[in-house]
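hiii so um. not sure if this is the right channel but i have a protein structure encoded as tokens and i wanna go backwards to a sequence. like what aa goes where. can anyone help
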């Protein structure tokens, strides 16, 4: 893929617009194709996830590499910053979700790792507005609700055997 001319525009809370090329971010993924992008609400960080399971976090103002993480064994399927900008979640086809402290990304250590039952691929993740709950949609058709603080599964909803590709909290 040619990402050199690919531009992402992020609307920050303050209303300013920032644009940057993802071509230079792509090099930090060692050429692995990008699968998802997350922009922190205040526009201060952008995270990209790649097919090889790597995550790159950059400062869009300076272009500074904040962190290069390689926590997952398979494709990154979702990235999301919490509304309060304190955590980043990453989900993967390797059946894991990782919860990262934004302040400690450079350490490369996740706060929590959640592994879904039955080794189902995680297709989507969402963090609620209070950063207390995480919803996970899986390839097997199951949706899970987890506690951010304890990493415990609070509810399981099995609807169908069709992949759940999107989950969202309503405000």
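sure thing!! here u go:
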């Amino acid at each position: 893929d040619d990402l050199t001319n690919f531009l992402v525009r992020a609307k920050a809370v303050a209303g300013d617009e920032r644009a940057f090329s993802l071509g230079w971010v792509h090099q930090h993924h060692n050429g692995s194709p990008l699968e998802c992008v997350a922009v922190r609400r205040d526009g201060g960080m952008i995270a990209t996830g790649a097919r090889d399971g790597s995550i790159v976090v950059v400062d869009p103002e300076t272009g500074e590499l904040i962190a290069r993480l390689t926590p997952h064994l398979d494709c990154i399927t979702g990235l999301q910053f919490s509304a309060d900008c304190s955590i980043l979640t990453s989900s993967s086809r390797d059946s894991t979700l990782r919860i990262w402290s934004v302040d400690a990304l450079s350490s490369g250590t996740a706060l929590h790792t959640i592994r879904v039952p039955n080794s189902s691929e995680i297709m989507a993740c969402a963090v609620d507005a209070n950063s207390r709950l995480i919803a996970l949609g899986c390839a097997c058709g199951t949706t899970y609700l987890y506690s951010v603080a304890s990493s415990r599964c609070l509810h399981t909803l099995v609807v169908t055997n069709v992949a759940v590709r999107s989950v969202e909290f309503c405000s």
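oh and Helices lie at 23-27.
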